Amino acid sequence: MQGREQSYRQWVIDVVNGNVKLNREEEAEEWTHRCIYKGSFTPRLVSLGPLHHGSPHLQPMEHHKRRALLYFLDRSKHSPDVYLKAL
Q1: Nearest-CA neighbor of 11 among 59, 69, 58?
Q2: Buried b (16+ CB within 10 A) or exposed e, 10-41
Q3: Helix (H, G, I), strand (E, B), or coil: what is residue 21?
Q4: Using CA atoms, how far apart are residues 6 and 61, in angstroms rounded to an integer?
Q5: Pairwise pLDDT comparison (35 vs 6), residue with the higher score
Q6: In terms of Cα–Cα distance, which of 71, 87, 77 is closest to 15?
Q7: In three state form, how does the secondary structure of 27-63 look?
Q8: CA distance linking residue 14 with residue 8, whole number of Å
Q9: DSSP letter assigned to residue 78
Q10: Could you give the residue ranges of the DSSP H alpha helices within the chain?
Q11: What is the pLDDT of residues 33-49, one digit of tens each?
Q12: The CA-based dihedral angle spanning residues 57, 62, 64, 68, taken in that order and rounded to the nearest 10 degrees
């Protein structure tokens, strides 16, 4: 668990420093595979707070949470520092 937490912290630092950006081509590819049919999508649980952070059954969504953050920051008119200070 310690290694995963350190990796996440480094990723956050990289995002704040501008070293990680949203890749629009990869994002477009992700969205082309979406389907509205129930059989094509199985929802998974997502934890956005600290209560269940690191739970093994929630790990499949970690990649998507990071993508969502990058997408949000890319569209935002504020720097990541504004949000960090608000936390």
Answers
A1: 69
A2: eeeeebeeeebeeeeeeeeeeeeeeeeeeeee
A3: coil
A4: 18
A5: 6
A6: 71
A7: HHHHHHCCCCCHHHCCCCCCCCCCCCCCCHHHHHHHH
A8: 10
A9: S
A10: 2-16, 24-32, 62-75, 80-86
A11: 666 655 444 445 677 76
A12: 130
- For residue 83 the two structure tokens come to 């949000």
Give the per-residue pLDDT at 43: 43
Amino acid 28 reads A
* pLDDT on residue 63: 86
Identity of residue 53: H
Show Cβ contacts of residue 4 under 8 Å, excluding neighbours closer than 6 positions: 54
Place of tokens 């995963």: 4
